[in-house]
Write a structure and sequence with these properties.
TPR-like_helical_dom_sf, repeat, TPR_2, Ycf3/AcsC/BcsC/TPR_MFPF
Length: about 325
């Protein structure tokens, strides 16, 4: 009889897994719960149900399932999944504890090492994440993805020479080439090597022309090279893809204003404000534009009066301009 029950549980789990992989979470849960009615402490079922709940962002319910499974057997996969729960609950210490337990029980788990590296990276613990990515590249995978993660965190630590060496190793492979060239361009841009940055970002855009990060970096490089028209071209390309990309439109307006194109800047800022009337950056630069144009100064003063009391990055600048206008 026990063998029959175990077979039923395994069959229900297998059916649930197929449903889960096809995105049918509700039916998968039904299968797992049927299995738990037969065997309430079967750890595989508890883990599988926890995975569905994790996908549904029901983190506390998922936590309960994984803990119950671990109460039966200390399986590295269950620790890994419990770590995912805590990562999503923004409890990094608990996530780290469970990821470390997972790799302790299964040191060959690439997924566990990747999860640990991603956790450290997300929380800006770059010294730790660099060690994880190095371990992965040296012992598990030479894929470009992991080299790029290593380079990203070396850049965050301003270890530019090391980062360039890692990116050089990743160059020439089929996958993630836009990222290789993007971060190469970013390093050169950070070091004021604008010509090299321009060459690298063009290679990134040749691979993936619609990549927003690459276009934004390309625009910044053009500005550094005093090529406003080319910078505008990159911003306009992105605005064709998404007319309501307010960040890009405001960045374009700020550059136009800095180069004396006040009316064009004002038109871009007015568009953003018409769609997002609490966009602080757009409001601040509209007030500044009106001041420079010496037009509609009461409106500029009104905007600054509002901005000088808010909790945002432009508060102090707004207060200074408001005081200047009140003299």
């Amino acid at each position: 009889m026990y063998a029959t029950m175990e077979k039923q549980v395994e069959q229900l789990n297998n059916e649930g897994v197929k449903l889960f992989l096809n995105g049918n979470f509700s039916e998968a849960k039904n299968k797992y719960r049927q299995a738990l009615e037969i065997s309430p402490t079967y750890p595989t079922t508890l883990n599988n149900l926890g995975m569905v709940l994790l996908q549904e962002k029901k983190y506390r319910e998922a936590e309960k399932c994984f803990k119950e499974a671990l109460g039966v057997t200390e399986n590295p996969t269950y620790f890994l999944n419990l770590g995912h729960v805590y990562a999503n609950l923004n409890q990094p210490e608990k996530a780290e504890e469970n990821y470390l337990k997972s790799v302790e029980l299964n040191p060959d788990s690439l997924l566990a090492w990747k999860s640990l590296g991603g956790l450290y990276q997300f929380h800006k613990k770059y010294f730790k994440s660099v060690k994880i990515w190095q371990n992965i590249v040296e012992n598990f995978s030479r894929e470009s993805y992991y080299k790029i993660q290593l380079a990203k965190d070396l850049i965050a630590l301003r270890e530019f020479r090391q980062a360039l060496a890692v990116l050089s190793e990743a160059a020439g492979h089929d996958e993630f080439q836009e990222m290789v060239w993007y971060y190469t361009a970013l390093i050169h841009f950070t070091q004021n090597n604008f010509g090299l940055a321009d060459s690298a970002v063009k290679k990134a855009l040749a691979v993936k022309p619609e990549d927003e990060s690459c276009r934004i970096l390309a625009a910044a490089i053009c500005l550094a090279l005093s090529q406003l028209d080319k910078a505008v071209m990159h911003w306009d390309y992105l605005l064709k893809l998404n007319i309501n990309n307010h960040k890009v439109r405001v960045d374009k307006a700020v550059a136009l204003l800095a180069n004396g194109y006040r009316s064009k800047a004002l038109a871009e800022l007015d568009y953003v404000i018409s769609k997002e009337d609490e966009n602080v950056k757009a409001l601040f630069y509209k007030a500044l534009t009106l001041m420079e144009m010496k037009e509609n100064l009461p409106e500029a003063k009104k905007i600054l009066n509002v901005l000088k009391t808010g909790n945002h990055p432009f508060r102090d600048k707004a207060a200074g301009l408001f005081e200047k206008m009140s003299e």
